[in-house]
Each structure stands twice: as structure tokens, then as C-alpha cells.
């Protein structure tokens, strides 16, 4: 960070995507022999000036894209110039360039799949570039969002925080026949419905014996997503609520029109937030300001320090009690204004109110009615 001045985030946003204005260029890296079993492409952007102990964001692309495309289509390289971090862009080795989130190898800690190679890139950054091991972040879009949930499940010790744009729960896109990089219609269409405890068990089975903390995570999803249906957001949130011991049916706070008009942010505890984007399809656009806040580069809503979650899946958190035993760092404003969920069990506008497998509120707040979008998803709409 030393050596240059922070730019106002508004001007950063204006510059985002203007690759020609960057201080440096995209480079290729090579993992040590044996550390890249599936031959995942390794691209990275290291600004001309980085912090002495730089943070790292691993940014994982969608199907049909690549590390190079994601470098160009996302704002992270411009933000790296401003904040002095390094961006790693892994690139899928598979035909069609989706990620393998279905094979036993990739679904297992140190299992030798794509997830293993990406985790090794983060470790490489720490060892080779003197990156700050306590500030390694991961984010991704669509197939890259599935990979982000999977990386949070299989390598919880690496990531300080994660943000997920339009994915599915870790282990949802599994292949029953062990297929690599397989498509799973059941999961894509939102028909895999599990309890928080079941999802937590899926996570723990990916890294048996791990008792350390898990990764604070933000999950974005659009209500008009017809590629990965909206109920997948519920399953992602149930998964991490299960892991962190939060009560999925009693979020601590529901913020309308946050961070954008028509977006609803639901907070389940310091480490788990879901953001439902009304009318947005596949995929929710990257929210650079939100990511910079969640990853702690900009003040106003940083993910809490990792704590808890290691193996504890039974405790639940009351809706109006203090949401964490750890030092809660979401932000002073949110922690002092925690509100109870609607009484009589009514979901907020844009909240879910029904659908196969739904066990939450069936009512809607006044001014909205419960409307069936598909058999798996009914929503409170005005
Ligand atoms: C798709 O994933 C679900 C879990 O989400 C799993 O039960 C099912 O067996 C998978 N389907 C195939 C064809 O592998």
C-alpha cells in the first residue's frame, strides 16, 4: 500500500474494467512439480506496487470464460492497483471451461482435483510472493461461484472470507458416478433440498478431522436465474448456517434495498449473509464496493475474523440475542441495530414464503402476497 494514495472508491468503480489503465499486465505462473494434477491454468495480476505483505484475491471464472477473460471482465485488477493486493485467476482445463465441482477428487481436501490446484496457487502466493496468509480471499461467478463454495468447504484454513455470485452449495453438483466436471440438473434446477445439518455434514465429510474455523461468506443470487434456480440460494445459506451453528429460520437482520435497489440482504450471523437480487438473472453482477468492504480493504462491513464453525453444528442462535461469541466486526451500525424477524412468521418483501422443502415462514409482510414462481420457490411480492 505504501507509495501511492488511496483513490476514492467511486472513481475506482469508474476505472474498473479499463484494462489499458492498469499499472501492470496479466502474467502466468507455474506451480511446483506435482502440485497441479489437473493442469489448471495459473494467471495472476500483480500491480507495479504492492503492499509489503500483500493480500490476495483468487477470482474464479464462469463456464466458457477463462482466467484471461475474467481478468478483463471483472474489476479486481483495477482494485488491486488501488489497494496493493494480488489477484490470481485460475483457468479451467476442461472442455467448455466449467470447473470440476462433481468428482470425489475435487470434493475432497487434498484430493487432487481442480480445487486442490487452486488451493495450491494460494499457498504458492504465500510462499513465493510473501502474501499475507491471513488475508487470502476467494470469489467467483456461476461455475466459479460453485467452486468458491467448494473451496470454502475443502480448504477452510486458507480463506479469510469469500463472496459467491450465483452458485450452488458445496457438494450439490455432485456426480453419483464420480464424473469429472459433470452437469447436475437436479441441483441446477433447485431440486436438491437438504437441512442445515445435512449440508453441514456434507461440508465436514469433505475435510474429515478438521476442527478449525470456517470461512465468512456472502452469497448472491438473482430471483430470475433460470440456469441455477433461486432455491439454490436457500441451500447455500442453509449449508453455511449449519456449519456456523446459526438458525437458518431466524435471520438476525433483513435489509431491504441493500446494497442496491431491489436487492435484499439477509444476515444470519456475522459470517453468513445472503443477498437476493430481485429480477436479476444469471448471473448477479460483481459488486466491487461490497467485495472491497467484505474483504476489509474499505471500511464499513468487513467479514469477521474466522472463528467457530469447526465441527459444531448443533447450537443455534436466537433471533434477538447477540449473534456471536466472537468479536463481531460486521460494523457498528449493523450490530447495534439487529432486529427480530417478522413476528407471526411473515417473510419480508422478496423473501421466500413457500416451495417444496421450504420450512420457513409461509406468510408475507403487509403490502406483499406470497406468489408462486415455481414449485420450489414462492416469494413475497408487492
Ligand atoms: C446430482 O446431485 C444430487 C445432490 O445434489 C445427487 O443426489 C444426485 O445423485 C446427482 N445426480 C447425478 C446424475 O449424479
Automatic annotation (TrEMBL):
One of its GO terms (molecular function) is cellulose binding. GO terms for cellular component: extracellular region. Its EC number is 3.1.1.-. It is found in: Secreted. It comes from the Eukaryota. Residues 345-381 form the CBM1 domain. Residues 1-21 form the signal peptide. It holds the Pfam family Esterase_PHB. InterPro entries: AB_hydrolase_fold, CBD, Esterase_phb, Plant_Biomass_Hydrol_Est. Keywords: Carbohydrate metabolism, Glycoprotein, Hydrolase, Polysaccharide degradation, Secreted, Serine esterase, Signal. GO terms for biological process: xylan catabolic process. Esterase involved in the hydrolysis of xylan, a major structural heterogeneous polysaccharide found in plant biomass representing the second most abundant polysaccharide in the biosphere, after cellulose. Belongs to the carbohydrate esterase 1 (CE1) family. This is Carboxylic ester hydrolase. It comes from Roridomyces roridus.
Amino acid at each position: 500500500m505504501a507509495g501511492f494514495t488511496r483513490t476514492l472508491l467511486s472513481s475506482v468503480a469508474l476505472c474498473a474494467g479499463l484494462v489499458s489503465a492498469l499499472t501492470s499486465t496479466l502474467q502466468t505462473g507455474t506451480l511446483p512439480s506435482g502440485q497441479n494434477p489437473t493442469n489448471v491454468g495459473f494467471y495472476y495480476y500483480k500491480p507495479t506496487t504492492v503492499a509489503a505483505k500483500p493480500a490476495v484475491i483468487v477470482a474464479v471464472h464462469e463456464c466458457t470464460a477463462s482466467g484471461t477473460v475474467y481478468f478483463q471482465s471483472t474489476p479486481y485488477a483495477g482494485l488491486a492497483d488501488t489497494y496493493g493486493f494480488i489477484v490470481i485467476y485460475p483457468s479451467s482445463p476442461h472442455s467448455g471451461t466449467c470447473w470440476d465441482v462433481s468428482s470425489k477428487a475435487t470434493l475432497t481436501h487434498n484430493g487432487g482435483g481442480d480445487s486442490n490446484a487452486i488451493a495450491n496457487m494460494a499457498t504458492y502466493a504465500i510462499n513465493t510472493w510473501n502474501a499475507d496468509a491471513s488475508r487470502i480471499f476467494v470469489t467467483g461467478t456461476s461455475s466459479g461461484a460453485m467452486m468458491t463454495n467448494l473451496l470454502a468447504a475443502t480448504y477452510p484454513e486458507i480463506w479469510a472470507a469469500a463472496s459467491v455470485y450465483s452458485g450452488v452449495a458445496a457438494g450439490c453438483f455432485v456426480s453419483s458416478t464420480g464424473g469429472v466436471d459433470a452437469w447436475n440438473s437436479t441441483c441446477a434446477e433447485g431440486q436438491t433440498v437438504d437441512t442445515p445439518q445435512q449440508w453441514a455434514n456434507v461440508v465436514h465429510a469433505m475435510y474429515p478431522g478438521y476442527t478449525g474455523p470456517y470461512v465468512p461468506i456472502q452469497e448472491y443470487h438473482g430471483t430470475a436465474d433460470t440456469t441455477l434456480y433461486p432455491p439454490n440460494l436457500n441451500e447455500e445459506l442453509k449449508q453455511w448456517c449449519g456449519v456456523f451453528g446459526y438458525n437458518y429460520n431466524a435471520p438476525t437482520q433483513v435489509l431491504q434495498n441493500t446494497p442496491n435497489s431491489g436487492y435484499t440482504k439477509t444476515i444470519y450471523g456475522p459470517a453468513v449473509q445472503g443477498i437476493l437480487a430481485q429480477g436479476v438473472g444469471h448471473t448477479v453482477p460483481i459488486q466491487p464496493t461490497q467485495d472491497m468492504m467484505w474483504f476489509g480493504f474499505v471500511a464499513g462491513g468487513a467479514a469477521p475474523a474466522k472463528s467457530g464453525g469447526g465441527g459444531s453444528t448443533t447450537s443455534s442462535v436466537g433471533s434477538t440475542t447477540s449473534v456471536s461469541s466472537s468479536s463481531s466486526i460486521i460494523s457498528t451500525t449493523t450490530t447495534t441495530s439487529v432486529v427480530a424477524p417478522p413476528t407471526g412468521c411473515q417473510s419480508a418483501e422478496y423473501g421466500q414464503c413457500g416451495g417444496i422443502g421450504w420450512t420457513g415462514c409461509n406468510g408475507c409482510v403487509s403490502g406483499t402476497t406470497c406468489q408462486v414462481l415455481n414449485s420450489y420457490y414462492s416469494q413475497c411480492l408487492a
